[in-house]
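name: query_chain
kind: protein
chains: 1
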Amino acid sequence: MPLVCLTDFQAYAQDHLSKSTWDFIEGGSDECFTRDDNIAAFKKIRLRPRYLRDVREVDTRTTIQGEEITAPICIAPTGFHCLVWPDGEMSTARAAQAAGICYIISTYASCSLEDIVATAPRGLKWFQLYPTSDRQLNKQLVQRAEALGFKALVITVDTPKMGNRRCDFRNQLDLQRNLLLKDLRSPKERHTTPYFQMSPIDSSFCWNDITWLQSLTRLPIILKGILTKEDAELAVKHNVHGIIVSNHGGRQLDDVPASIDALTEVVAAVKGKMEVYLDGGIRTGNDVLKALALGAKCVFLGRPILWGLAYKGEHGVEEVLNLIKNEFHTSMSLTGCQSVAEINQDLVQFSRL
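structure:
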């Protein structure tokens, strides 16, 4: 039986992955309220279609940070892809390249940055950084990513401490130990210097450190995890180039707003001075259209990419991307939009239910 929607891929992955791996991917923090609300919040938004418009040709292309992508649907950073498929992030990168979209590669990728770039040299790639307490390591990672041709630096800001992920505790999954022992040095450095234990995520990282990172690189800096107008205004003040509105898939602080509910506040605060993106809860082409109508330039998929990877590796990720891109094309057609530029707030309304 063919898989015809993202939840079909979700069901397949749950049936075929080990319980601990599935729980690690799907789990949220505490009561998982925010994880579930990310999805439910989209259903409170209704579409206002416009008809009698010529939609024989619908163009889903757009740009992010000046780079063209085939649709405003890209891949969010998630770690440890080798848990679900042997080639891990290399398979994901090849699928992203084939789809013509951006892939944000995690600090905690299970493949080296060099191997990922080598397997998909033409793909648009951004690098996501968890700042560690080792500033020299931060510097090396940033400059290594820039030298490898990554086009932007994404700083995750919502993780000064790991969220309270109950499923991982029940499964006795020692994620903190896995993170601490991951060797983030380049392959060359690993052969020439003694092994060392990586510094943990830096709980003291703050706005002044953004300025320090900017001094290290010419790459545009994107902040991932902003949810409030106050932080969005500070991002503008600190001259960052973009924001990903995100609550870490409901895996960090529970009871925060769903990403889609926080989006309009952030978009209004930046006043068009930077691009705003969104991750969290995207499951259909309609969800993509709703996010763009409320001001997102692009959305990023997290868990659905891992479901596709668990299904057929590279080809499973391609299927997931093609499916939601086709759904988005249909959503555009049925709301009367020939191009992404025509998607605006007039196409949505919030349900009174």
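note: The radius of gyration is 19 Å.
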